[in-house]
Amino acid sequence: MANQQWTADSIRSEVKKLVAEITEREPEEVSDTANFIEELGIDSLMAIEMLVAVDKKYKIEITEEEFGKIKNVNDAVELVQQHLAAAASKAN
Amino acid sequence: MSERIVITGAGVISPLGAGIEEFERGLYAGLSGVRPSTLFGEQTITAEVPDFKPQQWLGNKGIRMLDRSARLLCVAAYMALSGSDLLHAEGTEGDPGLGMVCGTMFGGLHSITSFDWSGLEDGPNYVNPMEFPNTVINSPAGQAAIRYKLRGINSTVCAALTSGLYAMNCAAEFLRFGRARILLAGGVDELCEESVLGFRKSGAISPSGCPRPFSKDRDGAVLGEGAAMLVVESAETAAARGAKPLVEVSGFGCAHDAESITSFRLRAEGATAAIEDALETAGIAPDRIGCIVSSASGSRAGDEMEARALQNIFKDRLSQIPVCAPKAALGETMGASGALAALVGVLALGKQSAPPTSGFTGSETTLRLAASPQPFEGEYALVNAFGCDGNNASLVLRKWSE
Amino acid sequence: MKRVVITGVGLVTPIGAGRQNFWKALLGGRSGIGPVTSFDTSPFPVHIGAEVKDFVPEQHVRRQSPGALGRASQLAVAAARMAIGDSGADLNLYNRRRVGVSMGTTSGEPLFVERYNDIRKAEGLEAIQGEMVQKYPCNVIPSHLAIEFELRGPCLMIPTACAAGNYAIGFGYDLIRTGRADLMLAGGADAFSRITYMGFARLGAIAKERCQPFDKNRQGMVPGEGSAILVLEPLDAALARGATIYAEVLGYGLSCDAHHMTAAHPQGDGAVRAMAMAVKESGVSLEDINYISAHGTGTPTNDRAESIAMKALFGERAARVPMSSIKSMLGHTMGAASAIEAVACALALKTGMIPPTINYEEPDPECDLDYVPNCARETHPRVVLNNAYAFGGNNASLCLARYDAN
How many other CB atoms sit within 10 Å of the CB of residue C175? Predict the structure, then answer.
């Protein structure tokens, strides 16, 4: 299950790709710090869509509450890494 | 309630092309939209909307979550609105008198099936909630309303193959009641793997891949897809805004055979009654009909039923009336078929010429179909939509005169 | 133009079937919400629903083979049979070409979609037959009614989701009014489905324990199922045959928010316009309205927007117009909801009693109107509005009035 090593870079690029797709932009237009709600226009349904896609990709389970706290790509990458690390340590 | 209701414009996206001009050109040249499928593999013969790129009309934003039905409908609506000077200006509120009545048979069949499938395959926790709205049958019309700020009436109607004509009539009645100022009325249905597979297994599809309406050797229908939206308003509203009426919506009739949801009623009582009703509400006798746009698709039973109904109504005169069967070129487009047929009626009355029935070889039918355009002199066109679920509907259109 | 009246009602609901059972349960504040039994809800965070209990299709479907009908059609046939019986109309005396069916639904017959996928999962696509494309399209529901009762007139399904019942009754009303039909069966039907349940669960819209419309601590809606059919006919014909008249249909209003697929317009713009249109078409004034059957799903956003819309339209008078949500008891029966609610309105007009909003415990400052909390009330309403709001921003308001024989 959690055998794949996801590097921070690969997670970042994946998250940006996802945000870009959901907000109908190019990935290059999505910065690490652009605020999801205010600058990128992500509404509550789009947020759930992101959450589902991230959970599916990394086989983790981020709660809606946790997800509600993240503001930008940096936060998202950190949260994914936390969950991956927790899953890895459980597996060991 | 004696308002004259007229059609002043239309948008269409179909197996014969996009926009009225391309549609008319292909139709009258006898072209066919029936060909090996690019969506489902070339072993499957369908009438698809070729190379559908909605971005051409809709731009790049806000179409990601629209399913194929919604995209087709939005394109047709866009063309109808822009062609009639009805697009709302950016940043404005939209018109509460402008609305839509959309006929459809399936809504977005692929959307609801794949939503349920993703729950089975991935488990509910990994299902994307953004896809849920697309599972309801009125979602294409709802999406179009959001996109074009259609704040008036927004209705979706479903009467299987007669949906498009019911939508036209509902729109006309809403206008007569003064509940709207202008309405887009028509229908949409998409092609998807579920419908292609299902209809093939149900035995309705032509094994030869060649729909031959009314022909003795016909062997079934070919599935198609598309959307048509006609601009419907009162003659008074049209005059006030300088819109030129093309035809008047003159009469409508409907009847149910009340026997089966899967087979055509060969004795054609319902189909006959629908035509009678349409003529009666138009206030005309059968001899005023200049051309007939038939519902025939190549179905062995369906075409037989329609031929009998036409015989019942027109009797000896039938062989003299130009008939066309647009489903030869468009395939069976289900919820869109009535709207596409109505558009054909509009074009036929304007040109005073019934379009060819694509691929017609003259193989034994007493009906007056042809492989080339058939000129006629006539004020009225009869448009039929008959289904195997027992629903039958007919529309009478009248060439516009002051 | 003919005046249009309701002369019969039939319904199958989570709190009981038939007019008398339904009305007694409704006035008694009985809830039909409980743990879902028709499929496994363990993958979801919620487990309650409003299912129809003890429904035996064989008892109601006669001219057709019951097993050939999907559940929504079965419920509709049952409701229609009860409605026809309740009206006392002898269909043999009618020209069947002038008797029709008008129905509303949200999902049609989704169990055939489920079955398609179950077969696909178990046996692969090769095992698929033509069942889904023949039986899923929602036009089958009114067609099954037409076949069951041999009705050969207009036959239409208006699948405008959670407002569909009102749209269908409106269509039936138009046909009677213009003299196109002599009798119409009009209503709505929806069956419980894992697809609908999953959809609302994923939106986070389903309440965990109960449905508490307009309450400060309301958590959401509860999916349900059911069917209601009303018999509509011209007033003169009803009088001529000595029919019981429940209420008169005065008119209706339709609008679209054109705002968002699942969220209501925050100021209730479309809701206000639909109500205003209904009132105007009905030839009454706002002051005449003395009861509202709310859409009242129990979600935080709907109930707030609905209360805002009431105040926007009725101004200061809003708090004096009792407005109850029977979804508190029935859950959200989707396309059947506004048809069931129309029946409740007709019975309220006939009996003088208005049903309550149950589970109402703590007022919400943002929802500060009279929601008829917890107890039915004798108010003898004369003119009522039945409101319904749907996915896609479809809004419909139906105006019914007491029929007095003067």
Answer: 25
